[in-house]
Amino acid sequence: MSPNQSPELQDPELQFAEWFDEAFAHSGEDASRCFIATVSEAGQPSVRVVFHRPGTSRRLRFFTNYQSRKGTELSHNPRAAATFHWPHFQRQVRLEGTCHVVSASDSDAYFAARARDSQLAALLSPQSRRIDSIQAFRERHQQQMQAAAGAPLARPPHWGGYELVPHFIEFWVAGHGRMHERAQWTRAGGVWQCENIAP
Ligand SMILES: Cc1cc2nc3c(=O)[nH]c(=O)nc-3n(C[C@H](O)[C@H](O)[C@H](O)COP(=O)(O)O)c2cc1C
Fold it and tell me: Which of 30, 34, 36, 48 to mutate to test the pocket of ligand 1 (most atoms within 8 A of CB)?
């Protein structure tokens, strides 16, 4: 995207959704991988991969364990940053903003659409917490799965979605001779402004 094309007429959130759709149409699930960074109470950043599962707002949305490291960090500080890289298109998108928990009905709907294995993992895994041994954890998991066999599974309250409401979005496109194109959008007072920045 060129910010020189009447930026005031463009909506970077729409642009993000369009770029994602193009990447997904080409690469499927690979396009959904994004790196999301959160910050601890002590100010230590941490980053990990999650899958982007857009909802009706088309914003970055991912599902996880609210008691995981990222969930705990977001409960103290909801600010987060995320990056997508779509190699086929030589594009990168960077987002920064605030994460909020999505509605229980949205999380319920997503949970209900998941494969049973994934539902069980969400129910049974105390994500990011210490386990005594991998072997013992797997055996206990197996027993719990057998105990739950056949029963319909409800979303546990410790698991659900976050949506990132961005105040910063950068679109990066590779250019010849490292003349990459960068359009940086910032939102203040509800209005998006665009600048070109050097590669
Ligand atoms: C390709 C890929 C996709 C992943 N998607 C998710 C996801 O959507 N949600 C999630 O909780 N973890 C996902 N993970 C695992 C996370 O990277 C991470 O290990 C886990 O969420 C625990 O992170 P935390 O301890 O920082 O909270 C994914 C990992 C990979 C490699």
Answer: 48
